[in-house]
Amino acid sequence: MSIDPSYYRDIILDNYSYPHNKSLSDEADYHSRHMASDSCIDDITVQAKFKDGKIEDVRFDGKACAISTASTSILTELLKGKTIEEAQNIINNYNQMIQGKPYDPQVLDEAVVFEGVSKQPNRIGCATIGWKAVQEMIDEEEAGI
Prior knowledge:
By secondary structure, the chain is α+β, with helices and mostly antiparallel strands. It has helices at about 5-15, 65-80, 85-100, 105-110, 120-145; strands at about 30-35, 45-50, 55-65. A hairpin with a 6-residue loop joins strand 1 (about 30-35) and strand 2.
């Protein structure tokens, strides 16, 4: 099945123009990770709240390009309410896709719109900055930090 590229573009532009979960929390039980790019305007903070082995909430804020903002917006919706194991599976599939390797598109839902990034090495950092932040926070949570 072939997807019209304009459909992917619409999803990216919608998530850039109207990002989901784009505000930070002052609550102390959120993990927080500041991420900045050396080669792009991306400078975001991502927060995650873990409870009982699940990601209860994910949010972000900052300045970022369209790819970074849209990717992180979609990430927040995909991971919210998932177990750490489910989130790890989603992140692993996303990273596989971004690297141009086999992945399960069913797991990624709207995040599949970034499939073409694997052919644009200069955009990989933009498409993964929020995902790397959440991975670091999951690693912290699992280590009990």
